[in-house]
Amino acid sequence: MVLSMTGFGRSEANFKNKEILVEIRSLNSKFTDVRLKIPQNYKEKEIAIRKLVAENVERGKIELSFEIKSPEGDEDFSLNIPLFKRYYNELTNLSDELDIPQGDIVPAILRLPNVVGAEIGTIDAQEWLAVRETILAAVKKFNAYRSTEGKAMGEDLCLRIKNIQEYLEQIPPFEVERVVRLRKRLMTNLEENFSKEKVDQNRFEQEVIYYLEKMDITEEKVRLGQHCKYFLEQLESSVAQKGRKLSFISQEIGREINTLGAKAYSSDIQRLVVKMKDDLEKIKEQVANAV
Fold it and tell me: Engineering a disulfide at 174: which of 224, 254, 263, 268 sits with its beta carbon 3.0 to 4.6 angstroms away?
């Protein structure tokens, strides 16, 4: 079963008097790219969090954020008093020198970097365990979301491939007609330029065979059928990451369809080729969003 590259998961938990909120979402990416938005005092756990996400989430641009709130508002924040004083002295001196109204200088200083921040210290082991479990719960919901989206995607991919297989099965009757048209066109051209008596029938048959060999699409039909069958097999396989492989197979399907169109010499076959290309484009769009 295929997984969707996009997904979303959210989980909440309580630890003592604090509320832990975790959200994880993803977008398309060729690689696993984990981006974190975490509290300042959890920076020491950044590597552990990245590893935890990478071990439980497949390919994609992964964005994980979490915050810890307390109903009493007693989060561990600190005021960098020396830095605050330095900013205040510098700004008041500058405003006096330039005769600029000081205005709301205190709120402005509080918004400056590193003036107010999280209290840096050792994270409580039990709190970290609660955060870790909440992250795993969000990841579980995230993967379930991807799985649901992937199921719908897989059904659509299967339908598109079967459409191509059906169009392929409709080609043989038109192959017979184009041979008849080829013989007729060649004979007409010869009769228009030479008298019928001067036409060497053996040479004529050789020319017909030459053009028929150039127009032969047997190999293309066989390879296209094999590629479609292989695509469906990979779609149903238990391999975790199959998006790249499905993309490669769809490229091979495209090459065979293009060759069929180039060697068609039949408006009826060309119409089937156009339909195949339409389904193939939709397949490529879906595969680009597959893990």
Answer: 268
Give the closest residue to 263 by CA, choosing from 191, 201, 212: 212
CA distances in angstroms from 148 to 7, 61, 234, 264, listed in the order given: 10, 19, 18, 40
R_g over Cα of the chain: 34
Q: How far is CA 150 from CA 29, 92, 147, 159, in A?
A: 16, 60, 5, 14
CATH class of 7-74+123-146: alpha beta
Q: Which residues of the chain have pLDDT under 50?
A: 74
Report residue 221 as tokens.
């039909």
pLDDT digits (tens, 9 = 90+) for 109-157: 877 776 666 555 567 889 999 999 999 999 999 999 999 999 999 999 9
Question: What residue ranges do the domains of the chain occupy?
Answer: 7-74+123-146, 77-117, 150-287
Query: Tokens standing for 19?
Result: 């509320």
**pTM listed for this prediction:** 0.71
